[in-house]
Ribosomal RNA small subunit methyltransferase G
Amino acid sequence: MAEENKVESGVVLPPADFTEQLQKEAQEMGVTLNEHQIKQFYDYYELLIHWNTMVNLTAITEQKEVVTKHFSDSLALVKAVPDLAEKEYTLIDVGTGAGFPGIPLKIAFPNLKVTLLDSLNKRINFLNEVIQALELEKIQAVHGRAEDAAHDNVSRETFDFCVSRAVANLSTLSEYCLPFVKVGGWFVPYKSGKLEEEMKTGKGAIRKLGGELEDVISFHLANEDERNLVRIRKTEKTGKKYPRKAGTPSREPLK
């Protein structure tokens, strides 16, 4: 159970157990958070729990689990991109859902220029409230399907990074995401468990889409969940026919 919140100068502070856990787990990822950022994370948590009673955002609602499985996991991108705090990278989070990993990354690395893409308008409404409440800048929530948005010249092949925690096989996810990445940029999906078979079947699809599978960074969260960041380099432009029309990438994954 969360500790009772303290009030200082009229501002409700995050409970000590939340602050200590988030600081500790972030530091283990190599990320240092100041008091303002920790308060932003707590405000985000409270909005998530409130909205989750009206919109299905997450099955994970217990404070300790949200910190580990959503916040800390999201910040792990720094393991794949060590200079994340130093450059104004452009980043798109495809299938962002409740904002993971895009919003935690924006809080921890304010220099990032972030686009959150999701197909459900109710989730976009939630994301916009979070952006406003946390006073985040250089971040936008966009309503749309990846299959459509990736054909928009404003978004196509314009991002330094594409990230996604969406549940889909590597072939399907690459077709959704690689078209957003500029040549020389990276697609970094977050994946669970063993990946050997998925990577084996996904290599051909990644090549067809203009990517090259470089490596996998494996790590464990504080609760010992095994997680992976797959680093896929965009080496050439994606063919104009990709992604294929809505539903096709998941029904008929590229090989």
The mean pLDDT is 94. The two ends are 48 Å apart (CA to CA). The longest helix spans residues 35-52.
